[in-house]
Amino acid sequence: MRKEDCFYLGKIVSKYSFRGEVLVKLDTDEPEIYENMESVFVSLGNNLVPFFIERCRLHKSALLRIDFEEVKDETSADKIMGSELYLPLSMLPALEGNKFYFHEVVGFTLMDEVHGDIGVIQAVNDSASQELFEVEKDGKELLIPISDDIITQVDRNTKTIHVKTPEGLVDLYLN
């Protein structure tokens, strides 16, 4: 399995018991949907290695406590400490309405209420405190904030996101 075919689920942040159980900090708004997994891919070096799960359950709401079949002591748990966990993209729950996954909207066109077509989403920058659409229009790059206040409609059929950008933002880039 390649990372491009998977989504990031979370990271192993600590050991839970001397029997090799680990705690995973999940990157999700709905941790409860991952309580009954049978397996995950663990990133070890440059490879995704399948690990089978004997038991997993929520721990203090934001963490997932996992007992892997292959990890039965602290030494084995130490070897995977800090590793990232992945699942195949096919396991992502479908989103509706104006909710979307960042990877899903790359290639979508942004349609502004005032300016019309303001470009195609090339990437999503989520490394800063404000997530941004990186949009290209006529060789120029526009950075448009991702916010419920700005996004008015996500149309998956036409691969278009309708936005109402703050006054002057688009002009700043295109004029």
From TrEMBL:
Name of this protein: Ribosome maturation factor RimM
Role played: An accessory protein needed during the final step in the assembly of 30S ribosomal subunit, possibly for assembly of the head region. Essential for efficient processing of 16S rRNA. May be needed both before and after RbfA during the maturation of 16S rRNA. It has affinity for free ribosomal 30S subunits but not for 70S ribosomes.
Gene3D superfamilies: PRC-barrel domain, RimM
Family: Belongs to the RimM family.
UniProt-listed SUPFAM superfamilies: PRC-barrel domain, Translation proteins
Record's signal peptide: none
Assembly description: Binds ribosomal protein uS19.
Compartments, record wording: Cytoplasm
Encoding gene, per UniProt annotation: rimM
Record-linked PANTHER family: RIBOSOME MATURATION FACTOR RIMM
Entry-linked NCBIfam families: 16S_RimM (TIGR02273)
Boundaries of every Ribosome maturation factor RimM PRC barrel domain copy: 103-169
Keywords tagged on the record: Chaperone, Cytoplasm, Ribosome biogenesis, rRNA processing
Main location: cytoplasm
Domains as described in the record: The PRC barrel domain binds ribosomal protein uS19.
Segments forming domain RimM N-terminal: 9-88
Family annotation (Pfam families): PRC_RimM, RimM
Keyword Cell membrane attached: no
Organism of provenance: Flagellimonas spongiicola
Keyword Disulfide bond annotated: no
